[in-house]
Amino acid sequence: MLEIKDLHVAVGEREILKGLTLSVKAGEVAAIMGPNGTGKSTLSYVIAGREGYDVTKGEVRLNGENLLDLDPAERAAKGIFLAFQYPVEIPGVATMTFLKAALNAQRRARGEPELQTPEFMKRVKEAAASLGVSQDMLRRPLNAGFSGGEKKRMEILQMALLQPRLAILDETDSGLDIDALRVVADGVNALRSPERAFVVITHYQRLLDYIRPDTVHVMAQGLIMRSGGPELAQELEERGYQDYIAQEAA
Amino acid sequence: MIKLASEADATLSSFYEEMRDKGAPRLRAAAWAAFSELGLPNRRVESWHYTDFKTAMSKPAPLATASHAALALPRAHDSLRLVTLDGVFRPDLSDIARLPDGVAVKSLRDALTQGEPHVMSALAGADIGAQDPILALNAALMQDGVVIQIAPGVRIERAIELATFTSAEAAQSTYTRALVMLGEGAQATLIETLGALSAAPAQDNGALVIRLAPNARVDLVTHLSGGVDRAIRVASLLAHLEANATINSIALIEGEGLHRRQIFARLDGEKASAVFSGATLGRGLLHADTTLIVDHAKPSGQSREVFRNILDDQSVGVFQGKVIVRPGAQKTDGAMQSKALLLSDQATMNNKPELEIFADDVQCGHGATCGRLDKDQLFYLCARGLPRREAEALLIEGFANEAMATLEDEQLKTFLSERVSAWLSRRISR
After folding, report:
1. pLDDT per residue over A140-160, tens digit each?
2. Is B405 exposed, middle or buried (0-12, 13-18, 19+ CB in 10 A)?
3. Does A144 touch chain B (CB under 8 A)?
4. Structure pTM?
5. Which of A127, B82, B138, B318 could form a disulfide linkage to B289, CB 3.0–4.6 angstroms apart?
6. Quick one: fold of A2-249?
7. Contact A88 B377 (CB under 8 A)
């Protein structure tokens, strides 16, 4: 589903991704683990299409289609979803207005009919109930004054509503207590399906106790250094990232 | 000092000669003297620093004459409408017969001729804004308008709309003044609509005087629209609040030309409460100036000012806000905030908030910012599937909405948000 080949990305003069190659199949949950500052968030932003990241070489394809030619909204309509590490607060924009605008913009882009309010409300309410998102949160401006945990739950609610083909979770576990982590993980697990892939970016193995990955990739120095199964996450938990940082020094 | 009379001075002087015997001669004479002393303000006059009115008004258009054309006036509200057209109050175009009990309406012209002392003293507003030359000019030259008295304790369900239009094919000057007096405990919603129906660069100087007896409340929505390049519109609001009185005022400025909205408010009774908010939607060459003075004269008053300027193309926004707290006005609670969003490199915002505090036990603050759309917010919305222009529109709408938060009337809320949406959809489609 997702094919990344020899991806080089620079921010200004500095090269952050240095020939990264990664392949994620439909139905797969791929975990990307690595020390801070190795370009994990950069990778997620480049897939989602954020400005300011200069792709100097390589390609990123979703089901064979070149994503790098598309703007962020077009990528979203193709099924890319990024759950942000730091969801942005947007005071003045009502959460429900935003959710409906986003959902219907994607549907329009795909040539599907827009959802009418009753059906939309029904879907939001179902998703909100399963994620413990209160009516009060839905009534407030988007993410405004939300706690860290509330913001992450709102991200997963959006994911449930938008039903992406490829979801990237960027450090979704950061700032979550164990109960919130379980709620978020349950939300993700409920969306697992043979047609959908996940890229779970995390620093710690903890999240992977709740969201069991099919593959684990170690990222350091702007590259995928090693790939393996779930046992690799366990090994990293025990040994840390020292092997990979040491390689960098060598 | 020798003052050379300019063409503008001579023309305005001839206007005064024409108006001086049309009721309230002493009031007009005093106002004319005040104006003559100060003259048309240039940029050296501090309160007009960002709006060079003297240059804009170098050629005053002829004083308006009544129009009798059968016009279909645009109607945006389900309101009780009182129409002033081309400087003349028009009962024939107004909903006089539908006014509820407890509301008395007459033309300003009649009020000036009758000269009832309490109306005259309310109209003059000598205690507020007397230092402004353009307000003084309005008093000296006022042609017509409407005087509304709402009896004590009366609550008017339906909004009363003060609609002031110009329709002349050639440029004209209008000087209009409206007075709304709310008796003790009275409540009303007012809509102030100022619009132009023709493409002529009109020069309109209008004033709305609102006097609130103790415990009275007014909700006011002001909509300034229309206009063309070189059109000039000054809309002054004078608000006088007695104890426990409340004014909740929200304004929307859009259109073209030069707009100056000035507010002179005096909280002259304990626990008076005032909100003055507004949004400006600027595009083209619009110059929109909001200048206000909120004067806390008595203790325990509260005032809030929330202004949002959204400026595209080469439009210019001005916000000058001054909150004064007099020596006796302890426990005053004031907060003033002006934020601007610049959507183009050529747009300009001038922000000048000021506090003058002469009491020691008060809580007052102000803030002013000026910036572009937030890139992180934009990316967040786009990453959820909103095309760039739609994401921008959603952010701009949210920004404008912050100035309208205190409005409770659902119909008026809808009206304002539809105006914002219409402005934004023009932006998306170009």
Report:
1. 999 999 988 889 999 999 999
2. middle
3. no
4. 0.90
5. B318
6. Rossmann fold (3.40.50)
7. yes
